[in-house]
Amino acid sequence: MTNLMIGLFLVSAALLYYVYHGYGLVLRLLALGRADRPIPAIPDSALPTVTLLLTVHNEERNIARRLANILAQDFPRDRLDVLVASDGSTDRTDALVEAYGAPVRLIRADRLGKSGAQNLAVPEARGEVVVLTDADAEFAPDFLRRVAEAFTDPAVGCVTTELHMAQLSGAVAQGQGYYWSYELKIRALESRLGILAVASGQAMAFRRSAFVPLPRDVGDDCMIPLDAALQGFRVVHLTSARAWDSMAGEASGEFRARVRMTLRNWIGTWRRGGLLNPLKHPGYAWALWSHKLLRWLGPLFLIAMTISAVVLAVEGTWVPAALMALFYGAGLVGWWADRGGRSLPGVGTVYSFLLANLGFLVGLTKALAGQSIVQYRK
Questions:
Q1: First-residue to last-residue Cα distance in the chain
Q2: Distance CA 275, CA 76 (A)
Q3: Are strands 129-133 and 50-56 parallel, antiparallel or unpaired?
Q4: Nearest Cα to 48, choosing from 124, 131, 122, 113?
Q5: 21-26, Cβ contacts within 8 angstroms, sequence gap of 24 or more
Q6: How far apart are CA 280 and CA 177, in angstroms?
Q7: Dihedrals φ, ψ of 115, to 5°?
Q8: Which end of the chain, N or C, is less packed with Cβ atoms under 10 Å?
Q9: Are 269 and 292 in contact (CB under 8 A)?
Q10: CATH number of 44-292
Q11: pLDDT tens, position by position, 5-56
């Protein structure tokens, strides 16, 4: 029993290390000598037409700022179509959008949820390329031009971009910053290796001809890159296209976001389960298991480490239990500091890590129980 528990503890710890550090190291080694494919400057007349699809619900406070940012893009106006899908807005959002006129258009959905509203809107898009965003994001002035240039390569079917998150104070926000920095590095490396199949819905794009209607209980950032990969298109991380957004800075918001993300993306990833088969798609299968599924299974590895450490302590081997007690103790101190508005290096990161994994666990449990989310509030 002792040897079995030691093995369980070490394997679980190794899997956690692999998910949060080892996978990135392997990607770096494989990507040595590989650079992003250069994209030459493209004249305006050769750029593909673009539909900017902005999906909103009750965004009267943000819609004017967001549309101003979009309309100020360094992109030929005659090649730009701006489509606002208002999903059952009951405030002044619709009236504000209608006041703009061309190239801004409004389409109304009857509270279908984000994915349902996008399914309604995409067939109305006039552009060859559809760029997805939301009311909280902001684009750099050349964002649309950089994205459009990428699609002049006919092999590209989906683009995800360099999305930067506003840095807030507190342990949770600091932990999010570390997590997102690692995420962007992973995406860039997977893109170079041709095995990227994830994106961010606030700032992503796809070839309209490759669009597959979205399940209402799964998000665009999960399904669209998977569908592009299944159709033989490349999914590209474009570091030259910069955008900004913000994450929830408080613990409750972070927890809810992790639950929602895990629930919807676990369901969506398995609906395209063929990409998880290493015999059919070895590169994508490795990337999706390493980047997504094992991360969401992380709390099970933590539970296995905890149980094995307790059993070993009962049998007289105290080192694993002492390590786990120190780890959870650091998380407790980080929680206490965060509640007091303080951020302590190290322990704050442990607290944020534990909070995220608790969200993963709840989301995974809901997914396995057959629950789903179609509509949700920010």
A1: 47
A2: 37
A3: parallel
A4: 131
A5: 23/186, 23/290, 23/291, 24/182, 24/185, 24/186, 24/189
A6: 35
A7: -65, -40
A8: N
A9: yes
A10: 3.90.550.10
A11: 999 999 999 999 999 999 999 999 999 988 777 787 889 999 999 999 999 9
What count of residues does the chain have? 378
- Single-letter amino acid, residue 39: I
Q: What is the DSSP letter of 232?
A: T
The type of residue at 368 is L
Q: What is the pLDDT of residues 243-291, one digit of tens each?
A: 999 876 678 888 998 999 999 999 999 999 999 999 999 999 999 999 9
Tokens found for residue 39? 């994209």
CA distances from 134 to 98, 130, 138, 201, 222 (A): 17, 13, 9, 8, 16
Q: At what angle do helices 220-230 and 114-121 cross, to 10 degrees?
A: 50
Give the residue from 268, 264, 141 showing the smallest Cα distance to 213: 268
Cα-based angle 6, 329, 324 (whole degrees, multiple of 5)? 5
Residue with structure tokens 């450490």?
309
Phi, psi of 260 (to 5 degrees): -60, -45
Q: How far apart are CA 302 and CA 330, in angstroms?
A: 15
